[in-house]
Amino acid sequence: MIPGVAADFSADALWVSAIKAVLIIVFLLTSVLFAIWFERKLVARMQLRPGPNWHGPFGLLQSLGDAMKLLLKEDVTVTNADRRVYLLAPMISVLCSLLVFAVIPFGPNATIPFTDFSTPLQLTDFPVAVLYVLACASIGVYGIVLGGWSSGSTYPLLGSVRSSAQVISYELAMGLSLVSVFIMAGSMSTSTIVESQTSIWWFVPLAPAFVIYIISMVGETNRLPFDLPEAEGELVGGYMTEYSSMKFAWFFLAEYIAMINVSAVATTLFLGGWRAPWPLSLINDGMFNTGWWPLLWFLAKVWLLMFFFVWVRGTLLRLRYDQFMVFGWKVLIPAGLVWVVVLAGFQYAGLVGITRTQMIVAIVVAAAVVLALLWLWPQKKEPEPPGGTGADGGFDAFAGGYPVPPLPGQSLPPSPRARRSVAPAEDAGAATATRVAPDAVDEDEETR
User: Fold this and answer.
1) Phi, psi (5° rounding) for residue 388?
2) Whole-angstrom Cα distance, residue 173 to residue 333?
3) Rounded to whole angstroms, how far apart are CA atoms 243 and 35?
4) Cα angle, residue 197 at apex, residues 193 and 198 outer, rounded to 5°
5) For the chain, how long is the longest CA-to-CA vector?
6) Which residues contact 243 (CB under 8 A, 6 or more apart)?
7) What residues does each domain of the chain span?
8) Rounded distance, CA 409 to CA 392, Å?
9) Rounded CA separation 279/391 (Å)
10) Helices first, then strands: H and E counts in the chain
11) Which residues lie in coiled coils (predicted)?
């Protein structure tokens, strides 16, 4: 048994690990096919249309038909591409996405049907398994970056650069959200973290960290409203623009497997893993946490998070890139840092014997001091916006010799056409006032 790991893999032979690995790959591939159908069907319902309903029952074979279409399409390679890197990039993305599920526990020990052999429903585990997950996600972005760079085209390169900046910023926020789980569970082993959630799931006491992780996982997987590396409206497909046939399918496959990966990590670290929800976990001494029930609970939680992905896609619009980066660096990362400091302070205070009442009083006093400092802090004057000033005091878009859009706080003067349309109206109003004035004077004289 590995020290610091709750699961026991000592009885697993090499053939058992090989079968588990094959089953994980089959599970991921079939889950991607189902996820594509699931997303199309759900978005169609949100948009009041039927969605896939022709091929197979309820349109379930539509995803399989699309996969076969990509497999049989003409494979085009760009002339100016770096051929080796161009072919290697999608393989890197797919391989890294497949590696994550090696440390995800599907359930506790289970007996293989028709045998007496019992094994954990997990391929492997080790004391720093969550760091392994973050490492796989970080390396996976190399496939996107190299794919955009090796294509020899401008828009794929822009998409790959966006992706690298996106992963750096949002992985920092994601890592900070996971630190709070490490503090509470006292381990980075996935099976040990699941065991630590026997009495309470970590998303309840660590709600701020859970919210930060949920937002970060959407940004990490390049999904709406954070799909800036693709951004079909401005980058024509982004880093995948120059890919076709199965090379494009590999990128597509990696994206959906990444969605399943981050959903499985959220389930394992925050939602109790394979454990049954309360109060079902209390029935008959936890009968719903034995047998094959844990596998069903795990899959239900993962697909609940997949529903959240689709719901967000069908609801929100894409952000601008500057808004996206400001949100990551100025909101999520500072919030994650503050939460880790507060949680570590609570843990340390509990170790040295400080009561909960004393901690609450200290937090209230500290919050009051911070608010007072923010209130008394001298406000900086807004700098003058760049650009010249027009004849009517508005923003001159041509001050630098070429047109630039107005920044926040600036306004363009009305166009010459608008001025010409306003002038006749003003003249007509003045003429009406001139005609009305004498009549008003006569009425006043008659009244007098």
Assistant:
1) -80, 180
2) 5
3) 22
4) 125
5) 115
6) 90, 147, 151, 251
7) 77-339
8) 16
9) 71
10) 14, 4
11) none
Measured between alpha carbons, how far is 280 from 289 in angstroms, rounded to an integer?
Answer: 9
pTM over 0.85: no
Sign of the torsion angle spanned by Cα atoms 249, 250, 255, 256: positive
CA angle 139, 145, 147 (to 5 degrees): 110
Q: Can you tell me whether residue 109 is helix, strand or coil? A: strand
Q: What is the tens place of the pLDDT at every residue in 66-114? A: 888 888 888 887 888 888 888 898 899 899 999 999 999 988 887 777 6
d(CA 257, CA 239): 18
Specify the 3-state DSSP secondary structure of 94. Answer: helix
CA 72 to chain centre: 32
How many other CB atoms are there within 10 angstroms of residue 100's CB atom? 24
Residue with tokens 């997990």: 122
Q: Give the residue among 92, 129, 123, 89 at the shortest CA–CA distance from 105.
A: 123
DSSP 307-353: HHHHHHHHHPPPPPHHHHHHHIIIIIHHHHHHHHHHHHHHHHHHHHT
C-alpha distance from residue 134 to each of 97, 130, 258, 338, 354 (Å) = 11, 6, 12, 21, 35
Q: Strands 395-396 and 388-389: what pairing? A: antiparallel
Query: Looking at residue 387, what DSSP letter applies?
Result: S
276-304 pLDDT, tens per residue?
Answer: 888 777 776 667 777 778 889 999 999 99
